[in-house]
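In the current project phase, we have settled on a layout for protein records. A sample record is reproduced below.
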Amino acid sequence: MSYIQLVRREIQGSLPKLAFMSILGGISNATILAAINAGTGAIADSKTPSLSTVVLFLVALFLFIRTQLYITITSTAEIEAIIHRIRLRLMDQIRRSELLALEGVGRANIVAAITSDTAVLTQASFILCFSVQGVVLIFFVAIYVAYLSIAAFVLSVAVVGSAALLFHLRNRSIQAQQQEATLRERQLFDRLVDFLEGFKEVRLNSARSDDLFDDAVEVSRTAANIKIRSQTALFKQMVTTQTALYVLLGTVVFLAPRISESLAGASITKTTTALLFVIGSCFGLVQSIPILLSANAAADRISRLEDALRSAVSSAEASRISTTGRFAKIEMHDVVFRYVDRLSETAFQIGPLDFTLQSGDLVFITGGNGSGKSTFLRVLAGLYPPDSGEILLDGVRIDEETLDAYRSLISAIFTDYHLFQRLYGIREPDTTEVGRLLTQFQLASKTGLSDGEFRTLDLSGGQRKRLAFVVSLLEKRPILLLDEWTADQDPEFRRKFYHQLLPELKQAGATIVVITHDDRYLDELHLQARRLRMDEGRFVEQRSMENGR
């Protein structure tokens, strides 16, 4: 999709009126030229410019001022409104997308579209309108040149047309190179994320730091080289086009009078003045081409991203499950989920799995790294769809129409959890309860709630996870999923989790599934629960826990 197509599709104001004002601006510009030429011609003939010429000049100047103001203000407002709608639409599609599909789209593509690509569209908005005016000016000045001299008109069409055709023919290869450069820059964004999110690992391992930096250097160098080639080719074309325009001017001044008697005296002066206007407009158009090409590429990337996100959005419109916040039993029957890493092409599978979770259950899942525990938890949460098998909630199969209601029963803290500054989705939280929970989780002196927003999130890893636990409890959902929640906790709070928090939650009727490596704490736990061990994506052991057994 081109930039112009995007504007035509998205604009809500009067595009015909904006186009009309751009055309009127071009006509007024050409009229100013004609009035000036008429005035200089009269002076050359030792006459005073006529009143009609002066009036024509003033009217054209007034129209030029009014059209420029209208175009500038309106185009800016319209483009920013379009960008606003695109951003909101993309964010809405993101929030309604499925996790697996969203992971396939890639964070770099999404962030770049919402930030840098929309910024390119803003930059091009002003250029687009004045490019339209430039085209209109060239058209009417060309008619004026034809009126002055057919020979000059034919020469102008031949030279300008040849330069435009050459530019167009070489344009596709330049666009392809710019697209590749953009792809490399987004790969560089991924490397930057590695530096920031993996900062501790980078600082601890100099070999990893060096390899990551070398990889980033290579990606950046490749992007720079591609952009140098594409920009060099583009600038060569611009210089060629500008040279052709100067050749046109020289031909009209030095050669045309020898082959056409119509170009002589005042006529050659008027024609040259008119062609100077044309050349100035052509220069403006040529200089705007890189920006418009970038805008075309940005519009195409945004369009393709929207298509990808549209396919990632769940099509569910209704739910057949009652959203009372209660349930009796969740069942998994022969559930299989397969995952292929898009970068390494490594395939992984969990299942077939049979699993039952009843209201009030406490389930511990153990197993080695890579055994499939976290993936299973995402399938249980409804974030990853099973490739085969089924999940039932109180006997109702979970599908697209029932998935959102099923998810509304679950709070989860995954290993890659995100902590929000505000309590989104929690209407009018009980400040007394918030204070009690913050005290219970030893956070009252570290942060607090003010107008639905935490004073600070500048906390240690363990404290942030405790705050995430507080938020999950404030959501008051019947099912709580915890993925290695104790991993960042100190021994004191880890013991408190197993011997105080879990018993209190179970007594309150909560249903809890915990992924853990804390075998020592599980062995000494005096609490009725189930313990499952995973290996290579399967449950290989299951036993009941009661009175520490």
